[in-house]
Design a protein that fits this description.
Length: 122
């Protein structure tokens, strides 16, 4: 399997779903582990570029990550890898993403909009 390093320097990532254990099987509830026996977690991120294009990325990471929804984060050692499988005669394929960890970069700034509760408090 080929791992493709991803340059994250031109992207902004925001956590959009909290870390949750990745399952090997929905039917059995078996939790996925890595080679070292660590539970693999999935973290949902939005990735935005300077042009305003946004993609949703489900990222696999070893161990629970201390991130919450709304935090600006940075995936460390992010790699992409193609996958394919056949399920019930249907061929499926895609690109999966994995990182060694997710680092918190800072809080999300919420702009003051006239008439909003945030603007009224200020």
């Amino acid at each position: 399997m080929r791992n493709i390093p991803v340059d994250v320097s031109a992207l902004t990532f925001v956590c959009v779903s909290a870390p949750r254990p990745k399952l090997v099987s929905q039917e059995t509830g078996e939790v996925k582990t890595d080679r070292d026996g660590n539970t693999v977690f999935t973290v949902g991120l939005s990735a935005a570029d300077a042009m305003g294009r946004v993609e949703l990325v489900n990222l696999s990471v070893p161990g629970d990550q201390d991130v919450t929804i709304g935090q600006i984060v940075s995936p460390v050692d992010l790699v992409a890898f193609p996958w394919e499988q056949v399920i019930n005669g249907q061929k499926r394929w895609g690109i999966a993403y994995r990182a060694s960890r997710v680092a918190v970069a800072g809080p999300v700034g919420v702009p003051d909009v006239p008439g909003s509760a945030a603007a009224d408090v200020a």
